[in-house]
Write a structure and sequence with these properties.
Largest sheet: 9 strands, mixed
Helix content: 40-55%
Organism: Pararobbsia silviterrae
Protein name: DNA-protecting protein DprA
CATH topology of the largest domain: Rossmann fold
Order of helices and strands: HHHHHHHEEEHEHEHEHEHEHEHHHHHHEE
Strand content: 5-15%
Number of helices: 19
Distance between the termini: 46 Å
Shape: globular
Family: Belongs to the DprA/Smf family.
Mean pLDDT: 79
CATH architecture of the largest domain: 3-Layer(aba) Sandwich
Number of strands: 11
Number of domains: 3
CATH class of the largest domain: Alpha Beta
Structural class: alpha/beta
Length: 472
């Protein structure tokens, strides 16, 4: 698929300067991939190694004994050991992929690395990016990115809302980030794709694979006019355990997370919890107390998420003002001014005028999804979270979104949830629902704590259903 030259002229890159990834020589590429793909190492300990010893080319040539105090002897032996034939074949595959147009590998320390990710305690050591690198950076006037997430089995009303918000955000120069799943994700991507802000899809597969199959055409278009981002090796298939890690990148890339629709057990609540832990804002669209697909949103609002009824509310919270006369057209030609670029800008009062919502075009044809395929992917997400969906405690228990202190492990020390999960694990494989019962924390907090431990290389999943300590 080729891009339309006229369209490329109309929708110029967000950044006035062309952003390019640094070119790695063969030794550097080998070292980065070896570091990123070493089992039980994890992004947190990789960053510690980089801070302590410098570039990967130095680290992979060190003696195992020098690395042992930091990562353990077994991991150190693997990291600096001989390359297997399979690893060398994977390196060749990456080299060939990078030779293609719009294919990039961005590593920590590269100016092209997304600055928002550097604010998180566990940034991926490298990212495969297909598309425009500038979509991963603030716009020319400092426009941020907002994640738009929600149910895969979205209602018609939810799709209309996702379209309305994503289109208005994109027209205001805000990049819309989501996970390329069915339902709300797909609508948000499709609606923002052709706007000045554009869209970024963070995926749980290799950057060379589009999942689910129904979104292949949408994914190909995002790879041209937007950006597809993955921390996983090329060719990686969709695996349940990848979804939570994908969600953390979505939360970290964005200034805030908008939850459009969510049941009490939706994966969107995990993304919202991660956003809180990363110091991001959380927004939610309210709904009827009788509607199960809105209970997650209503719960978030009750716990401190900002209630937004129209795109005007959200744009105002971001410091982007849309004149009333332009609202009906989706703010596309509105003159915008920044009231504040601070992440902690004071929230203004909301507009509750129902007429302040842009027109809602028809939902894209690519989103007419079969019920059983929706259920299949939703089940994969549930499996990935290992949530006990029957547990009444599997929703977020907040302390007030937007100003809430992190409940994940940070530089200042491990949180209570992380400590509680670590102690509850013991030395035997433990299912997630047992951890929830043992710790007394809600499902979202436990899953976020598990993710923190997993990223630190301290725990791993056994047979896809129980956690064990790695001994690292």
């Amino acid at each position: 698929m080729t891009s339309d030259p006229k369209r490329d002229e109309t929708h110029r890159p967000k950044s006035p300067s062309h952003i390019r990834a640094q070119r790695l020589d063969p030794d550097e590429l080998h070292a980065w991939l070896r570091l990123a793909w070493t089992p039980q190492l994890g992004p947190i300990r990789i960053r510690r190694l980089l801070d302590r010893f410098g570039l990967p080319v130095h680290i992979v040539n060190m003696r195992p004994a020098a690395l042992e105090p930091y990562i353990g002897r077994a991991v150190a032996d693997y990291l600096v050991g001989p390359h297997s034939a399979a690893f060398l074949a994977d390196v060749d595959r990456v080299s060939a992929w990078l030779a293609e147009t719009r294919h990039h590998l961005v590593v920590l320390g590269d100016p092209a690395y997304p600055p928002a990710l550097l604010e998180s305690p566990d940034p991926p050591p490298l990212l495969f990016v297909k598309g425009r690198l500038e979509r991963l950076h603030p716009g020319p006037a400092g426009e941020p990115a907002i994640a738009v997430v929600g149910s895969r089995r979205a209602t018609h009303a939810g799709r209309v809302q996702a379209d309305k918000f994503a289109r208005a955000l994109g027209e205001a120069g805000v990049t819309v980030i989501s996970g390329l799943a069915m339902g709300i994700d797909a609508v948000a991507h499709a609606s923002a794709l052709s706007t000045p802000g554009g869209t970024v899809a963070v995926v749980g597969t290799g950057a060379d694979r589009i999942y689910p199959h129904e979104n292949i055409d949408l994914g190909e278009r995002i790879g041209i006019d937007g950006a597809i981002v993955s921390e996983w090796p090329l060719g990686t298939p969709p695996r349940p355990a990848h979804f939570p890690r994908r969600n953390r990148v979505i939360a970290a890339l964005a200034k805030g997370v908008l939850v459009v629709e969510a049941t009490p057990h939706s994966g969107s609540l995990i993304t919202a919890q991660l956003a809180v832990d990363y110091g991001r804002d959380v927004y939610a669209i309210p709904g009827s107390v009788e509607a199960s697909y809105k209970r997650g949103c209503n719960r978030l609002i009750r716990e401190g998420a900002m209630l937004v009824e129209s795109p005007v509310d959200l744009l105002a919270a971001l410091g982007l003002v849309c004149p009333e006369a332009e609202v009906a057209s989706g703010c596309g030609k509105a003159q915008r001014r920044s009231r504040s670029r601070s992440r902690h800008a004071q929230r203004p009062r909301h507009s509750h005028n129902a007429s302040n919502t842009p027109n809602t075009p028809n939902t894209p044809n690519t989103l007419n999804l079969q019920e059983e395929q929706q259920e299949q992917q939703e089940q994969q997400e549930r499996d990935g979270r290992r949530a006990c969906v029957d547990s009444p405690s599997s929703t977020i228990r907040g302390r007030g979104f937007g100003a809430c202190p992190s409940r994940l492990s940070r530089a200042s020390g491990p949180s209570r949830a992380v400590e509680a999960v670590w102690e509850a694990l013991g030395h035997d494989p433990t299912p997630l629902d047992v951890l929830i019962a043992r710790t007394g924390f809600d499902g979202a907090a436990v899953q976020a704590a598990v993710l923190a431990l997993e990223l630190d290389g301290r725990v791993e999943w056994q047979s896809g259903c129980a956690l064990v300590r790695t001994g690292a």
